[in-house]
Amino acid sequence: MSAAQHVEVISHPPIPVRRGAARSTTWWGKAWVRAVEEAAYADTDLRAARALSRQAAVGGISLDRGRLVAAVADGHGLWTVDCRIPVVDQIATEALVEVVAAEAGRIGALLAGDLPHALVEHADEAGVELLPFGGELETSCTCDAWVDPCPHALAVLYQAAWLVDATPLLLLHLRGLPRDELLARLHARTVEAEASGEQRSSEDDDPVGHDEASMDAALDAARRAASLLALIEDGAPIDHLW
Fold it and tell me: What is the pTM of this model?
């Protein structure tokens, strides 16, 4: 793995023991859990996976573009699980950035730990599925189980739902758009929009005067996004950005 790729890996420490069902609390976390349960072969595997996830049998989870890796311990040994989710291509990545940038409040919501329904719906309309479905979750495990995903892999995916619950930006990361890259792309869009606005204002002749209102609105949205990003970079608390 190259140095550029390595910095994109996010490592989460082991999740402590949880009581009760291994369920998520957010609508997007529940959608992730549905995908996990769609991928399972049998209810017995799901029950075993929920037990493992609640008992803190899963080690720290390393998350990268399209990949989750963790170790899982049970009464028979220590196993390594590798989970894969498809990443979007360059065109879809650009479309996803467009969707996030379409409303100034969306990046603030994501950074605050929220995932607006409209963002997911508009991303889907643009051809980008943020939330996975069972058929695209691919896993492998060093255990000798004949099913794939095995209970160890399902346990890792259950815990991944808890991570996504708290940090929906991980969904974008898994699809191939890490947080820092998203912010960089949004900043670049803002700079470009500002430059375009300055160029337009310096021209005496405007052959598309009927589009002036929409261009002004786009520039205003870009300036609002720039202000938000500046506050984020200065370390302002997220709850003060609304």
Answer: 0.76
